[in-house]
Design a protein that fits this description.
InterPro entries: Acyl_Trfase/lysoPLipase (IPR016035), PLPL (IPR033562). A hairpin with an 8-residue loop joins strand 5 and strand 6. The longest helix is centred in the last third of the chain and has 24 residues. The chain contains nine helices and eight strands. It has a single domain, classed as Cytosolic phospholipase A2 catalytic domain. Strands 1, 2, 3, 4, 5, 6, 7 and 8 form an eight-stranded mixed beta sheet that branches.
Length: about 300
Amino acid sequence: MIVGFSFSPGGLLLPYHLGALASLSYHGHITPSTPLAGASAGAIAVTSHATGVPPFKALEASIRVSGRCNPLFLARGKLLPSLHNELDSLLGMNAHEILNEREAIVGLAHRELFPENKPILKTHFETRDCLMDAVCDSSMFPYFSTNQPFRTVKRRDDLLPHVVVDGCFSVPIQRIGCPDFSQVNGNTHSSKSSIQVDRTVTVSCFPEQLLTLTSKKHDRIGPKLEENAVFQAIKTVTMATQASRRQDLIKLFEEGWSDGERWSFAEERRKIGLTRKDRRKKYAVALMRKYFVDA
C-alpha cells in the first residue's frame, strides 16, 4: 500500500507543518519513497523537507518571514517577496533535480485561472527558478501574500502568461486545501505520474473538528480541539495572518512534532503497515541508497 501525505495551507502557521514533517520522518512514516503534496504553507514545508533543508533552518526562515510581516491583517506586499528571498537562500542549486529524481513525487498545488481555469499539482521542475516559482504560485493568497488578487507568471515557451492563485483554491473546501494526489495525472513529465496513492493522510494546521475533512479520522493529523474552541479558533487565525513572537513559532513547531508523533503511535496501535523498528530500518536503507549507492 502506498501512503501519501498531503499538507494544508496555513499562512504563517508553517512551523506546525515543519514539526509534523520532522516527527513523521523520525518515526519512519516519511521516506524518499513517500509521496508528498502541499499547498501554500504545505508546499513550502514539503519542498524544504524533500530537498534536504534541515528543519531548524526552515524554522528560522519562517520566523524571519513572520517578523517582516505587517503586524496588522492587511498585506503590504512583503510576504511573497520575503518568501522568495528565503527560498533562494535555503534551496541548493540542484534542489529541482533532487525533487525530480526523488523516488516518489512531491506535488505543489495551485489554481490556474488563465488561460485555463483548472487545479494544478506540479511535480516536475525544469530549473531551480521554476521550483521557486511553483512554491510562490502555491502561496499566492489574494491580498495577503501580495497586494494583488492574483499572480501573473510567464512560462517558458508559452505565448500567453498564466494567472494563478493559492493552492487552497485547487480542491473543494472540505479538504481544507490539502491537495488531491489524483490531480497529478497529466501534470508531470515523469513516469511517477502513473503511481497510485492508495491512502492519503491529510495534515492540517487547523483543528479538524472546526472544519470538515473528507478523509477518515485515522487519516488526519492536526491539533486537538481545545475546551474553549472559540478562543482557539481566534488564536489560530491570528497566528496564521499576523506576525508572532519567536517563542510562539517554536512552540508551534513542537506542537506539529507532538501531533505527528501522536498519529504515529496511534498508527502502530492499529497495526497498520510496518512497525516503528521496520520503518526506521527502511528509512535508513533508503538514505544509504540515496547518498552512497547512487553516488
